[in-house]
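#struct-pred

JT: dropping the chains for the assembly here, can someone run the whole complex?
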Amino acid sequence: MRPEDILVPTPSGVCCKPGGFHIDPTRPVAKALITHGHSDHARAGHGAVLATQETLDIMRLRYGDGFAGTTQAVRYGETLDLDGVRVSFHPAGHVLGSAQILVDKDGLRLVASGDYKDVPDPTCAPFETVQCDVFITEATFGLPVFRHHDAAGEIGKLLHSVALFPERAHLVGAYSLGKAQRVMAMLRAAGYDKPIYLHGAMETITRYYQSRGIDLGEVELVRGAKKSELAGTITICPPSAMGDLWSRRFPDPVAAFASGWMRVRARARQRGITLPLVISDHADWDGLTATIVATGASEVWVTHGQEDALVHWSRSKGLKARPLDIVGYGDEEEADVVADADEGLTVPSPLAGEGQGGGSS
Amino acid sequence: MNRFAELLDLLSYEPGRNNKLRLIADYLRHTPDPERGWALAALTGALSFQHAKAGMIRALIAERTDPVLFDLSYDYVGDLSETVALMWPASIPPLKGEGGREAAGWGHVANSDSGPPPGSLRPPRSPASGGGISAPTLTSVVETLSTLGKAQLPAQIARWLDTLDETGRWALLKLVTGGLRIGVSARLAKTAAASLGNKEPDDVEILWPGLTPPYLELFAWLEGRGDKPSSRDPAPFRPPMLAHAVDDSDFTALVADDYMAEWKWDGIRVQAVSGRDEHGDVVARLYSRTGEDISKSFPDLLEALRLPAAIDGELLIMMRDRRVQSFNVLQQRLNRKAVTPKLCAEFPAHLRAYDLLAEGDDDLRDLPFAERRDRLEAFIAKLNDPRVDLSPLVSFTTWAELTAARADPASAGASADAEAVEGVMLKRRDAAYVPGRPKGPWWKWKRDPMIIDAVLMYAQRGHGKRSSYYSDYTFGVWSKAESGDELVPVGKAYFGFTDEELIQIDRFVRRNTIDRFGPVREVTHEPSQGLVLEVAFEGLQRSTRHKSGIAMRFPRISRLRWDKPPREADRLETLEKMLSKIEAGRAA
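RK: done, full complex below.
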């Protein structure tokens, strides 16, 4: 049996014909297995959805109760049999509830990793390497220029700037699901104990994280705060809000952005960021290549991002490798904009929807 | 070096002038001598050592990385120094036994046993500077570079790169290749230094030519520990006076009699200053508008500045036939490393004088413009040098007359040089020469650009700030071909659009690509499908380099016409008509 007999890449996602399901389909299907709650992977309108409890909860918060016909929650490590295909979910370390999906048919093991990172994150279960024959990897940061370093150092940079410019407000752009909460948790770990302010679009998800026992300290909505009160404070907001009228309520704001994209200077400058923070929820180049090696896979399928470099690297290491042309991943930021409507945002960021810039990171 | 690298890093992102000043001043205040002096020298462009060539940096990285991965990375990042800084293999040893692995890409992860054991996380990696070897100071970098032989340079740079982190490597490469390009002018750095002692920037500016790095004397004076350095610059730069662009609505408030008009020439605004030093020798310098000393690039013009004075004027290229050349020609003389006699003979530099700021020991800046103009005319006559002439006044009594002159400079006195006229300048007769951009005394009134609608055909990724965006556009107009109408490329533009529009075009390009040639994408350009760009430009010339036979001067995207189907874009005949009109005007 060939791997392609088990999983077929189609333009709308990976399809398992013998098991009768899709993984992270970008169009409505009968049965969907969802790796994590980012809206480019978790879409509404499927017949049946199988995912971790957190992912199902997040989908419900975003899309409402009727987001799928039926749902089933699966625990990490639990094995299910879907028409003779054995399926299990394993922590991906990307955001709360994120999973890699192991598909095993007659001993041939394929792992669809969704989005993942192999460094510690206080807000989600740590990444777990799953041995497999075929590893389907993302490649958001699949170029050797992306090296994320220690995220704690970047938090230090932010706190230093807050100390240096006490009369200014610091706005930290961060994706609503995952990054925002991780930044808050890391600020707490660094000893920052003042209230952290929050853009309204992030409230629901943040409260959900807190309800799952993740300690984020005192979190306040920025909506009610006076301009003068915001001097010397830190506010977390969707990246798209920073250039918006919304940001005028802050005294001389410093524009920070927590993203792996900030490693490349031009990307920070294009967005008018003056304090780039290299904090990513995706594996960097070293993480991608180390993970590929660690899975023991002899074949690598590369999706969304910089496929070329990672395919080249895999082949140079004697692995079989191919890019998958799946469209539609990397739209997390676009979803963020929709969610911002309650804060008076009307113009969506034109960057959204492009694989290179709009991806969650 | 690490603190200096941090400063450069912060400056490179900071757009605000005042915040930049604060960052530099903060650095200078908290960094000891001589380190801060070398930093000030780097920021003001006062360092001189053998620069490393891009080719050498490429060779260093080629020894350490996979060429395919390097090309992909460079294409993405768009800046050589930055790509190398990011890709350079870190030198810290792997944390064996702690689930660590080698922190490098190509060539290091190959040994599969260095990966983390299944189920474990990679520990955070500290910057490479923790590798046991300490990072160099800026002082030691500068001192080493000034004595090092060419042959030893690559190995030395590699050793430094091994000890620095990403930001440190980036800063070092910027420094050794001689192009900081972080948006800090020499003037701004001097202003920050002046602020240490609550001095005016001009106080430092006047002393500057007599100072040498690492400026121990200067800092001692600024911090009240020493006397004012005793050098008097015989040829100082004087902060220039700038004009506001005039709108049609401004004219209702302006009285024609109050103003004099002159041509605005399309060259480089300069200040040509000469004076005598303590030995009585003539010191002549040419400054750009921002106070950068550009004398080295124009030795041929410097010779002409024999009489002590400060002239505000336009740098142009004037051929033996006394005709002023276009800005394109002037560009041949810019950013040249070596200024050869051949280059000077081929493209002779010329100064066209607008204003006289000083003559001998007299500071004329407080005089009314009309009086300064009289002094200027007398001075140019006395100087009597073919390389320096007077920018003629444009005579007018009503705004209508000036409007006509601006529309047709050739028949209003500019004659054969009309093509080098960018517009007219209005100057109040009674206005003193005030540094900065005061509103009211001076106005610039540029000529209206020509405009056509063209169709986007090819797009190329930009470099630097534009890297990873398709920001260079080749556009075409319709022309008759054997098989019906087809688009012929007529020009290329890479600015004029807003950041927002750039993102929109970039997205259009990515979604409508029909072919790729390296970094270039061909996009859909059918009669009913494609993107129409309104292109503004300043002039047209015949060209053998373009298939269309026409070259545009200064083309830029003035509007995106999402509303217009490509079939309604302009035709080549329209451009040809415009060109004939220009040529007819020139002949007249």
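JT: nice. Residues 92-118, 126-131 of chain B have pLDDT under 50 and may be disordered. Residues 572-587 of chain B form the longest helix (16 residues).
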